[in-house]
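Note to self: keep these together.
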Amino acid sequence: MWHWRILKMVEHYADLQEKYNELVEKHQLILEAIAEVKRATAKAGAKGHGKRFSKSLAAELSVLRVEREKERELLKKENRSLKSQLRDTTGAVHEAGEALVRLRETEEAVAAAQVLFKLLWLLIFIFGF
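Structure:
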């Protein structure tokens, strides 16, 4: 039963790590898109397309900034939640590992006690104590 719980905890930990990695990847994609827009703006400005392009691009950038800020806030909340869950799961996995070590030590002690008990019965049988 312990092994099943530990496996579930490890699976949960792996899921949390995967979600965290996905968030990092999304964040990187957002940063790359921003850099691409900045490059396109600089290139268009160098070609001299004028104020009309600048105004439409500024409006589009404004909308993108608002969307990006909303997504950033959502990602921050989700990231904090995932980090918290990851810490909790890590602690639980560590405690489960310690419990397994104690269980193994107890099983070894029981096995040694059984050997001693059998030896004691053998001595009693042989010497008739």
